[in-house]
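## retry 2 of 3
previous attempt timed out at serialization; input unchanged, resubmitting
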Amino acid sequence: MRNKIKQLMNKEEGFTLVELLAVIVILGIILAIAIPSVGGIIDRAQDDADEATQELIEDSARIYFTQRIDETSVNDTVTVSTLVEEGYVDLRDGSAPTGYVTYTEDGNGNGIYTYSSGTPSS
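## retry succeeded, writing output
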């Protein structure tokens, strides 16, 4: 009976080195799979945000040109900085506005608004 009690008292519970290494290897495999996936999600989110910003700028230019319908002609351009200065676009992050929007028409007289980066050519 005493031997049984001594065996129970001396029994140490814990993990072996092999078990700990197995867990580390499994975590490494999971990370190797997860990190590229997260990177792709971040890239897609940035692309979606850029596309939404472009649509916002084009819609703001549409309003800008509509309010100046008598002054607007085909191939007119408006810079993003002008849209910001006149309150059509609100850049809350304080970034410097760049690019411009060109107004053109299709064969049916419908307006087409195209955003371009850089500065408009004269």
